[in-house]
Amino acid sequence: MTLRNQVLVWAAFSLVAILLLWVFRSILLPFVVGMALAYLLNPIVNLLSRLHFPRPLGSAIALILVIAIFLGIFLMLVPLVSTQVAGLVLRLPNYIADLQQLVQELAPQFNDWLGPERAAQFEASISDMIGSGVDLAGSITAQVAQSSITVLNTIAVLFITPVVAFYLLLDWEGMVKRVDDLLPRQHREEIRGVLGQIDRAMAGVIRGQASVIVVLCIYYSTALWLVGLDFGIAIGLIGGLLSFIPYVGFLIGFALSMTIATVQFWPDMWVSFFIVLAVYVVGQFLESNVLYPKLVGQSIDINPVWLMFALFAFALLFGFVGLLLAVPLTAIAGVLTRYAVHKYQASTLYLGEPDLPAVPAAELRAAPAAAAAAAKPAPARRTSRTRSAK
Q1: Confidence class of residue 144 from pLDDT cuts 50, 70 and 90?
Q2: pLDDT at residue 149, rounded to an integer
Q3: CA-to-CA distance for 284 and 384, rounded, in angstroms?
Q4: Span 292-317, mean pLDDT?
Q5: What 8-state DSSP symbol labels residue 187?
């Protein structure tokens, strides 16, 4: 098969996969989560198999262990977090109203500092920004309530996901072998190498992203609680959980914290205000320069701008499932793109046609004579019958 036909086949396969994802996007959530869970637990099940546990028993033990850990965390955190989140939702309009009133009280000072026109523009900009933030928060909450946090989806995630993960774990090695048997024999080793790179990238992304979320949740919640910020634990958890979208978790947590800190600590707010500001400056530095490059960036080797574009694009196409799939699929796309660039740089399209070996001048002068000799007809050979006839 020519290179052109191979490219067409893989492009058609990719388009069909994207089309299927788009068509079934509304029911994919438990299956995507189940596949991710099975992928993460497969090394544990393999270890138990090497310890002579039957694979069904090993799969059940791994799933029960994970479910027990999640239930324990859920039962420990939900009473505290639910109270804080409910209080934050109820008090947020009051905080915003207090902030607007504070801006109006400071308007005379703004007039002295900036002049009447610029002060009015500044006050209008602050009011518009606050109103836009409220509208955005309300729309996001409504979309989440309508799309992902419904009773049906919650039941599906809670009950179907473990079933999907269990059956995938039972036959994981068999599925891998069947896929390996379908690989083209001529390019089998090369495809195995690419799939190995994708596997390492996926593992690094999932484990790294989970580690970043856990570290940021603990850091922001603890730091804001120590500062004494109202609903600091809830705000820290919101910012940490949304950190899988670059800068979104930071910006939402920062806006909420600055608003509440301004209203809560006014008028003697400057010390606490700058402490809260320092918490987010340090958190963003750790996320951008330590956690994300070390835990996630090395696995995908993709510019954060492209990652943000992929997150928004997948969210637009596939909704909440797109957010879950964006980073792993971007990691896969990065591996395939680097492989395609490597093949391109090794092709004649990039290197050009190979140069012919140089021919000496003496051979070039002798070439016309040799051609003429080859074109001259050879003399007829006399046979023995011809000689006897004479």
Answers
A1: very low
A2: 45
A3: 103
A4: 73
A5: G
Buried b (16+ CB within 10 A) or exposed e, 165-200: bbebbbebeeeeeeeeeeeeeeeeeeeeeebebbee
Buried b or exposed e, range 83-92, using 16+ CB within 10 angstroms:
ebbeebeeeb
Give the pair of three-digit tokens for residue 189.
């080793």
Cα-only R_g, the chain: 33
Cα 24 to Cα 13: distance, rounded to the nearest angstrom: 17
**What is the number of other CB atoms lying within 10 angstroms of the CB of residue 254?**
21
**C-alpha distances out from residue 241 to 179, 211, 217, Å:** 35, 11, 7
Looking up tokens 């140089």 gives 358
Residue 18 has pLDDT above 70, yes or no: yes
Q: How far is it, in rounded angstroms, from Cα 340 to Cα 372?
A: 50
Token pair listed for 5: 């036909």
Residue in 291, 258, 323, 224 with CA at minimum distance from that of residue 25: 323
Structure tokens at 230: 């109202």
Q: What is the DSSP code (8-state) at residue 243?
A: G
